[in-house]
Write a structure and sequence with these properties.
Order of helices and strands: HEEHEHEHEHEEEHEHEHEEEHH
Number of strands: 13
Largest sheet: 6 strands, mixed
Radius of gyration: 27 Å
Structural class: alpha/beta
Number of helices: 10
CATH superfamily of the largest domain: Periplasmic binding protein-like II
Helix content: 40-55%
Distance between the termini: 50 Å
Number of domains: 3
CATH class of the largest domain: Alpha Beta
């Protein structure tokens, strides 16, 4: 819009209102007291109208169920009920799909998210989403690894463990059906630098825990499998320069929905609050 047109529109508005909105002096233009007052009210009204339009658009989309895929790991069992309670209050119609992280169910859920659009949000390690160009993801926290140690083990006196401390031990390494690069790298380090370690891979977490309890072995798992309420095991952070991102994945077009940004912010807020409640440094780094 040209400057003469802007000037003409302002003059027309001043005539309609019966007050002077701007002052012009030596080529400079500034708002009068009435102009500043009017501008503040117009901005406030614009915000109210924009919010109303946004809310109407959101309410229209909320009629469609939101399907959340999850793997029922301990951290999800802690934060998901709080997230679901909040989303229900916001008017979301929710459907939950429980997936076994040790089976092909997770891979199938990702394929369904891409091909059949059966899952809207899926909580998992971000490498699962990277191989699909149709998917995007938002990292929720970075983590490393924990060593699962029986409560009676002498290693429980340590707050953190290193790989040299595990030399000579029988180790069970968790590796899901979907290969996680950080876990594969850790396996390579153990095989190359610590050949004396007796290493076994397992995908099923329940079998892994039974194996640790029965054979007096130790297990290495990603931190998102950490269980603070376990009566039988202690989870001790493993000092290795390897990390992964626990994330929420979704189809790229899902990000175009009007409620996407507040939804993601709500997820991030609930996850951060649960991290603080758990008071676990390895989930926050």
């Amino acid at each position: 819009m040209s400057q003469p047109t802007v000037t003409k529109n302002i003059q027309k508005l001043e005539a309609e209102l019966g007050v002077q909105l701007v002052e012009r002096e030596k080529g400079r233009v500034s708002l009068t007291a009435n102009g500043r007052f009017f501008w503040q009210k117009v901005c406030a009204a614009d915000q109210i109208i924009s919010s109303a339009i946004s809310q109407m658009s959101i309410q229209e989309h909320l009629a469609d169920p939101l399907t959340i895929g999850y793997t029922n790991v301990p951290f999800e069992r802690a934060f998901l009920p709080k997230l679901i309670t909040y989303l229900n209050k916001q008017g979301f119609q929710l459907k939950l799909q429980n997936l076994n992280p040790s089976s092909k169910a997770v891979t199938k859920a990702v394929d369904n998210a891409v091909d059949n659009k059966e899952v809207d949000l899926l909580f998992f390690q971000e490498d699962l989403f990277k191989s699909h160009r149709e998917l995007a993801y938002t990292p929720l926290f970075s983590g490393g690894f924990s060593v699962i140690v029986p409560k009676e083990s002498d290693l429980n006196k340590f707050n953190r463990l290193t790989l040299p401390q595990l030399a000579g031990q029988r180790l069970v390494l968790w590796q899901g059906v979907e290969q996680i690069p950080a876990i594969s790298q850790l396996k390579m380090i153990l095989e190359q630098d610590y050949p004396q370690v007796e290493l076994v891979e397992m995908a099923e977490m329940s079998n892994l825990l039974i194996y640790v309890a029965s054979s007096q072995s130790l297990a290495i798992v990603p931190n998102f499998l950490y269980d603070p309420d376990s009566p039988d095991f202690q989870y001790i952070r493993l000092e290795v320069p390897l990390q992964f991102n626990y994330s929420v994945g979704y189809r790229r077009e899902f990000a175009d929905r009007p409620y996407f940004t507040p939804l993601i912010r709500a997820i991030q807020r609930v996850v951060r609050a649960e991290q603080k409640r758990w008071n676990r440094q390895d989930l926050a780094e």
